[in-house]
Amino acid sequence: MRRLRALWMRLGGFLRKPQGDSDFEAELASHLAMHIEDGIRAGLTPEDARRQALIRLGGAEQTRQAYRERRGLPWLETLVHDLAYSLRRLAKHPAMTAIAVLSIGLGLGANATIFSMVSRFVLRPAPVGDPSTLLSVQRRGETALSWPLYNDLREQVKSFSGVAGYYPLVPASIAGRGEPERVYGQAVSINFFDAAELRMTHGRGFANSEENQPVVVLGAGLWHRRFHDDPAMVGKTVTLSGHMFTVVGVAPAGFHGIDPILDAQFWVPLGSADRLVPSLPRGPDRNQGWLFVVGRLRPGATPTQAAVELNALAERLARSYPNTDKDKPFIFVHSGLLPREAQNGLLIFLTALSVVALLVLAIAGANVANLLFAQASGRQREMAVRLALGATHGRLQRQMLVESVLLGLGGGVLGVLLSLWATQTLSAIQLPVQFPVDMRIGVDWRVLLFSFGLSILSGLLLGVAPAWAAARPLLGSALKGEDALARPGRRWTLRNLLTVAQIAMSVILLSMTGLFLRSLQTAASIDIGFRPQDLLSMSVDPRVHGYTPERTVEFLNQLRERVAALPGAVSAACTDYPPLSMASNRAPFHFGGGPNSGKNDPVTNLIMVTPGYFETLGIERVAGRDFGGETASGAKIAVVNRAFVKRVFGDENPIGQQVTGGGVTYQIVGVAGNVKTQTLGEDLTPVLYRSLQQNIGARPSLLGYTLVVHTAGHPAAMSEAVRRQIYGLDRSMAVFNQETMEEHVYSAFFLPRLAAMLFGVFGGIGLVLATVGLYGVMSYAVSRRTREIGIRMAMGAQPGTVERLVLRQGLVLTLIAMVLGWPAAWMLSKLAASFLYGIHPHDALTFAVVPPFLAVIALVACWIPARRAASVEPMMALRTE
Amino acid sequence: MSDKADVWQGTLALMVLKTLESMGPQHGYGIARRIEQTSGDRLQLNYGTLYPALLKLEQEGFIRSRWSVSENNRRAKFYDLTKAGQRQVKKATAEWEETTAILARFLAPAEEA
Questions:
Q1: Cβ of A35 and B28 within 8 Å?
Q2: What is the ipTM of this complex?
Q3: Which residues of chain B have a CB within 8 Å of the CB of A6?
Q4: Are B48 and A63 a contacting pair at CB < 8 A?
Q5: DSSP conformational letter for A381
Q6: By CA distance, what is A12's nearest residue in B?
Q7: Least buried of A277, A446, A805, B29, by fewest C-beta within 10 Å?
Q8: What is the SS3 assignment for A288-333?
């Protein structure tokens, strides 16, 4: 307490300095006067009395100094002095300050942006009460669990106080004012909100009795958008896909489900979800995993205890159900993280980006360090004078470090501003997925803390070498006016090393950039298997409006006919999974009609289509016929793609043969070309197209049904006419995912484009910084050697010789840097290749082009100083200094 | 000079407080003289060190100061104990007595070993 008070008073003393000075001056004067008076009274002469008094005081100036030090905070005072001095100096050199702040700002901005992704996807806990004890339980290779397994977990794992399950995406159309809208929610067990420990902003979560009741909890976003934040909504009913649901609560803003990226907007109990999604199998089938499971640790239970219990349960299950549960250990991750495999992929991606961003920062830092060196050599006489006057090395170094930390902080501020802009830009990117995700990133407190720490650290790091060197000029040389930072006989200065490091890092950065640009180029030339031009697509989901399968088929057929008859339409077809849709319905297939034979059956994507689908999308038809004429109850027919034929039949003719998958036998009537069904990056996958009419009762797609229209003119121009046809058939039908196929394909290029953009920007920044750095070093070298060059020329050296001399020095640095950087780039590219499509890690073109390209840049950077050197006038040079 | 003891580190504050307790408000020079007198002139006080010590005590809130007029009609800064200062005198005295008592036991000739 007392110490704190004293510190506070001293801080006060530090701020009210002049007043305190005069006060103590008066006290000291009064002390001396009294002492002298006493001395005179004791018989001394006034002079002797005064002398005595001063001796006993121990010197007036010393006393003042001791008093001053006690009154204020000496270290704070020197810091403030250093700060003020540094700010003055930086303001005096605005160009240098601006370049330094800009360099560090770019580097830090890149890092802050990448870190905002790390913060969002790796560090941010789930938006639930106490995220640390909520675990999401999965099995190896399975993120979703079956209903019986969920019940096993609930009943047998005692470390959990609650085990909740949820089905992550339930589509529904919500009616009300305006056009009907398609929204996505989740079907959850009734203990979901209890396990999540989530407090509703209005109303409540689900009660135990509401397992099968039509009740709903609204997300804050949906509540705001469609119901204008009306608290009286609790207790009212809303219509979801034609069914009445009673609102019991409103979830807090920011809660979009436990998943980190899905954007769920309402929650209904699992038991009432079959009104919205048929076929959530709550039966004894252990094969069908569809439920995501989270467990809340009992107070006092540790994750280790839970792991032990889960292992024991997995062993019991393996014994009881060897067919389905053998070799399926449980794994768990903290809720709010992506599933294990996705998380690993994301981590690799973010690590690569962080490495690149740190490289950019390192290059920028080396640049600024070089700049500070140049500054320091301009200040050596000042330093020498200050040292000669008695300043300590430490004091000089501290002042220079304060200066570089100030530059770092300035860069940090700029960097945060840049990352604010960058995160906004990145958040605005449309993702190539057809269900709602929330991947927005932003600058949160973790990013701010990270940026602050990194800017202080980079300020210290880039300042430490120049400060050390500058505070130790060779006094003799400095006072003589010679370069006092250049140690005699040392050819490899720190600046040269910095430049070499910079160029080496640029080699790495540019190679990576080159690889990613090449990957984009490769991606652009991928054969997607269909014609994206002149196609309009939009989706409807009649089933969520209460349509039976038969009525759904009827609706889609009528819609196709009406749209195809529109002027400007060439043809129209429907499917449940349009190409490049990221989603799939898969099953292993085998030849013939019997049950599954073994594990080698090729996993096949199942896609429902209507007649005319292949013509409409311009998919090649290789053999056989199209759909058409089949009846709903007749033998099921299928068209397979080339990859399927190759895997199942080899060279045999597949037409007329039977194949079986997912418990259904199909007769093959035709063969179609290969199409990228899910992503650009996928390998050729076997695909089996089946008749929409014959299979509409099967497990439905989350994407609804997509109508694809081949138009004669610009496809977007027809969208209103097509919409009108849909509303003409059913006024309340929600239409979603409306886009032209070219837009759809464009968004599928998302990942390569994003990566190429990030790496391109980073590579460009790095290149510019390294070039400036090399130029700076060479200019400095020339200015230092002016006299030497003058002597050489006076002795008869030709301008061309001098030019070559300087160029050679620069190119030697470049060459060394490349020898160092090239192998590192070679190794890093392997890492990059592991997660992006179409990258050949050792792409010859990239690795052949980058070094000469960089050499040319380096040549230009050296050439300007070289020209300056060659134009040195010998007599002028000899007279300088 | 050398036959006079210097003031030990840390004891000056207690001497100042004790002096103020017995004398009431006093200026810096008065305190210094009084300390020397009390010690029977066995202590040689460097007056310059007294003022930072007074400042420290004031910053810690044990004493307060105000400008006033001395008995010789001279303007001087007078120091006075605060409530906290009075408590501190008792506390520090007790601690000091404890310390010296312990030390005395060590230094006393061993009678009953």
A1: no
A2: 0.85
A3: 56, 59-60
A4: yes
A5: H
A6: B59
A7: A446
A8: CCCEEEEEEECCCCCHHHHHHHHHHHHHHHHHHCHHHHCCCCEEEE
